Amino acid sequence: LSSSGLNGILTNLDELKKEAQQRREEHGGKLGNLTISLIWDTDDDLDLHVVEPSGEKIHFSKKNSSSGGRLDIDANESAIMENPVENVFWDNPPIGAYRVIVNCFKRRSSEGTKAIPFEILVSDEVNNSHKAYKGSITTTNLLEELPLNIEIKAP
């Protein structure tokens, strides 16, 4: 979909930051003091789930948390989005550990068990930290928890 997409082109953090920012802006997403963005390059419906330190989960059917976290872009849910992105952000993120989960909710064009590659960018503006994770998912409706260690500390 994107000329700067995931087909082996995004090889460093700066490229991923630029791509995630471009996709967020294109689809009206926001950047907070903590932002977690999922990007991929198919018309499949991947879903980003984030579990806050309290255990509260933000995802497609619960887009806002009591702490102010918000899923503001839900890609490929019904209409197919060019350059898909899912984005969760907090202006004042709770201190503690977060868990990130990716779900392949619905396959459209990718075949059978073919892996769908994705990348996740975690932007922690509180601690001036940016981390990238590259992965893939193959199974529909299997929640895949990622080995991301996101720990928000007091500034």
Task: Walk me through this protein's architecture.
- The protein is globular.
- It has a five-stranded antiparallel beta sheet with strand order 4-5-1-7-8, with helices on one face. Strands 2, 3, 6, 9 and 10 form a five-stranded antiparallel beta sheet that branches.
- The protein is mainly beta and 155 residues long.
- 35% of the residues are buried.
- It has one helix and ten strands.
What distinguishing features does this structure have?
1 helix, 5-stranded antiparallel beta sheet, single chain, globular, 155 residues, mainly beta, disordered N terminus
Compact summary:
The protein has 155 residues and is mainly β. Helices cover 9% and strands 39% of the residues.
Estimated share of beta-strand residues: 35-45%
The overall strand count is 10
| Helix-residue proportion | under 10%
The shape is globular
Spans of at least 5 consecutive residues whose pLDDT stays below 50 are: 1-10
Main sheet? 5 strands, antiparallel
Radius of gyration: 14 Å
Task: Please list the strands of the largest sheet in the order they lie side by side.
Answer: 4-5-1-7-8
Count of helical stretches: 1
Average of the residue pLDDT scores: 85
The helix-strand sequence is HEEEEEEEEEE
Ends distance:
38 Å
The secondary-structure class comes to: mainly beta
